[in-house]
Amino acid sequence: MTDPQNPASHHESAADPSLSDAEIEIAPASGHGARRAVLRGLGVVLPPLLTIVVLIWAWSAIENRVLIPVEGGIRYLMVLGFADIRHSVPKDAVLDTSEDVTGAKKRPGFTYQSVTYVPGPTGRHYLPAYVVREVDDHADAFGASSLPPKTAAAYWDRYYQLHYMPRWIVVPVFLILFISLLYFLGRAFTGGIGRWFVSTFDATILRIPIVNKVYGSVKQITDFAFDDRQIEFNRVVAIQYPREGIWSLGFVTGNGMREISEAAGEPMLSVLMPTSPMPMTGFTVTVRRSEAIDLELTIDEAIQFVVSCGVVVPPQQRVESTLKELPSKPASGLSTTART
């Protein structure tokens, strides 16, 4: 309300409508610009960020499911075959009764063949003092949350990890061996007995209820992404499918069948029509060669277009003009007077 005794408030109320109109005009523009800036920032940041996240997830899966179990198994075999763990004091050993060597009052350590042995954490076994000293001095190398060894075998396990299997050696060796294994498996299963074995294994798994659904879907994805497919895409074309006026992208896979070409009276093309957003599924159509338009697209660019549902358009195919600038075709059935 306006105070009749205060003329300044009267002028302020008179100016309010113009100010509110300006705010209404400016606020949407500034908000729209901020939203576009945020979306552009996400467009720049998300691709490398998601790539890094996927790579980290893949490495974590390989490390937790393959590397760590293999590494632990190798150390277990090393402890089982080479660890110097004694269950009792040898006859020729010299007992050491000093507490500063053993650190325990239950059973003393001893020296045998110039090697000093101390009781393990359980007190039932003996192991060399240098192993205990080395592991205890480098306890931080195993992480702040790691628990101290509970047995003599656990001490030897960490000792082997420190001296013979540090991570900076294990990871490169593991990657070389892992890639080499994949290479030899790929060569072994590409033909002959290997291909028969893979086919038999796939057929057996696909007969198991519930499991066959998951395995079949995963196999389709992996076959499309990693397999050396027999289907070779020659080029990318656009055809009017499923009806005239609707253009769809397809991959040319061959020249079609002879009988179809003879019936049509002209050369035909076999075209794989991928589906969005999963191009590893689709269907095959046979069209006249004259009805297919060759596009200036690589196979990878076409796949990106299909996966993104048309959002990712290659630079050479982008339409820079707005919809208002594009030529429009008048609808059929409208008179010239109605169009004007």
From TrEMBL:
<feature type="transmembrane region" description="Helical">
    <location>
        <begin position="165"/>
        <end position="185"/>
    </location>
</feature>
<protein>
    <recommendedName>
        <fullName>DUF502 domain-containing protein</fullName>
    </recommendedName>
</protein>
<feature type="region of interest" description="Disordered">
    <location>
        <begin position="321"/>
        <end position="340"/>
    </location>
</feature>
<feature type="transmembrane region" description="Helical">
    <location>
        <begin position="37"/>
        <end position="59"/>
    </location>
</feature>
<keyword id="KW-1133">Transmembrane helix</keyword>
<dbReference type="Pfam" id="PF04367">
    <property type="entry name" value="DUF502"/>
</dbReference>
<feature type="region of interest" description="Disordered">
    <location>
        <begin position="1"/>
        <end position="20"/>
    </location>
</feature>
<keyword id="KW-0812">Transmembrane</keyword>
<keyword id="KW-0472">Membrane</keyword>
<dbReference type="InterPro" id="IPR007462">
    <property type="entry name" value="COV1-like"/>
</dbReference>
